Fold:
Amino acid sequence: MLTLSVNGQSHPVDVPDDMPLLWVLRDVIGLTGTKFGCGIAQCGACTVHLDGEAVRSCVLPVGAIGQRAITTIEAVGNTPSGQKIQQAWLDVDVVQCGYCQSGQIMSAAALLQRVPNPSDADIDAAMSGNICRCATYVRIRAAIKQAATGKQELLQTLVSEPKGAAP
Ligand code: FES
Ligand code: FES
Structure:
């Protein structure tokens, strides 16, 4: 029996140590906001925070987590950086199909927590492992910058662009 700290609550779980965290979150605890994409740490859909750091839950065995705090998309809005990122996502209207977006938001919130005013290079480094089949990359970048600066002027350059324009 393991006890996981998820979104500020203790969850005793009777699972094998080598079960990936993603399976425990979705199928045992019932938090389905975190998505399965590739299962091999290549797409970022399953991103959660471990002590505030973005990790791929599809390849993280629960037995390796210990007492570290897990935060998922269901609770990231309770953190200052997560709140800013989620509001910017709404303001910029980032989402298309939505499948990748919980992972995108988790990576972006971890970046903003670590680097309050990220450069383009910082954003590229933090977000390059999060794939979006709908190609929302331009809006993701704009939303991260808006969350960091609080300025909305960046949006004006997007008004005439179709959603899904390639980065
Ligand atoms: S499902 Fe984990 S990185 Fe793709
Ligand atoms: S919004 Fe559809 S995959 Fe990213």
About this structure: The chain has a mean pLDDT of 93.
